[in-house]
Amino acid sequence: MLIVCCSEISDPNWRWIADHLSEKDVRFEFIDCCPRNWVERQFKFLNLARLRGSLEAVLKAKGKNAAILVSHGPTLAAWCGIFARVIFLRSALMAHSFNFVELPNSLKTQIFSIGLSRVDRFVVFSKIEITVYALKFHIPESRFSFVHWGVRRPATGGASSRPIGYVSAIGGNARDYGTLIEAARLLPDIPFVLVVRPSSLEGMVVPANVTVHINLSLEATINVLFESRFMVLPLNSSEVPCGHVTIVAAMHLGRTMIVTASTGIADYVKDGENALTVPVASTSDLVQAIARLWLDDSLRQSLEKNSLRFATAQCTEENIAQHFLQQMALLRMERR
User: Fold this and answer.
1) Has residue 209 been placed in a domain?
2) Which of 113, 126, 108 lies closest to 174 in space, CA to CA?
3) Does position 124 have pLDDT exceeding 90, yes or no?
4) Residues 15 and 37 both lie in one domain
C-alpha cells in the first residue's frame, strides 16, 4: 500500500513514521514543499514551493494510485484538497499535524474551506482544536482525530550536571515573553536563558540576569533546555493550541515546567502533577511559581518524574504510527 507524504521538511533523511511501519504492508514516498530554485525562493507572496509541492504530491498519488495522501500542516492540506478536486484524485486525504498559530482571516478562511472540504481526516494534537476548526471551516467533527504529539527523545550533548542551572524558555509561536521578562526582572538572583526569534523581544529591556540567544540550531536549543533546572512556557492566550513540541521535548528530557494555563495544552499539562500552571499575563503568579520551583527540589523532582512517565507513555513516535494505522483502517472502511 502506497502512502504519499508531503511536508515542508527539507531534510532528505526525514522519514516520518516509515521506520515504525517497515514490517507492515505500507510504503512511503515523500515530497518536500521547500523552495528548490531561484524562482521559488523569490516569490514568497504566493509561496510557489507549496503550490508546486502540493500539486506534485497530488499528481504522484493519482499516477501511482496511492491509498492515502498525507499532508503536514493546514496550508498544504488546503492546496492538496484543491488540486485533488481539480484532477479528480481518488486517494484519501489526511491532514496531519493540522494546527494554526492564528486562525486565518475571512477571505483566507473561504479559500481554505474549499480545499479542506475534500480532506477525509484531520489529525490534531489537542482536543480543543477539533471544536475550533470544525466550527471555523464548517467541517464535521467526525472527520477529526486527536493524538498526542509524539517524538523520540531529543538528542543531547551528554549527561547534564545541572549544579546550579537556570530557568530556560525556548520557542516563538504564541509566546508572551513580555510577562516572563518582567518576572525575571523581579527575580534578579535567578538566571534565565532564552532561545527566541529576532522579533520575540522587540521593545523590551532585558535585565542582566537574562541571557538571550537568537535562532540557535535545534541541537543547541535542546541542550539549553536540557541543562536548565526547569522551563517556562509563557503563552499569550488561555486558549492558544501552541507549545506542544516544546512541552513534549521537555518531558522526554525529564524537565518539568511552568506553563500558562491554556485549553490548548490541557491534554498534556496537569497542574501540580507534571507541571505548574499560571494565569495568562500574570507577572505576580509567574514570579511566585518560578521562586517556588527554583527552591523546592522535592516538588521539582516529583513533577519531573511524572512528566517523563507521561511522555514515555503518550508522546512517542510509536503512538503516532499506531494512530496512523488505526485512521488508515477507518478511512478504508469509510470509503468502501
Assistant:
1) yes
2) 126
3) yes
4) yes
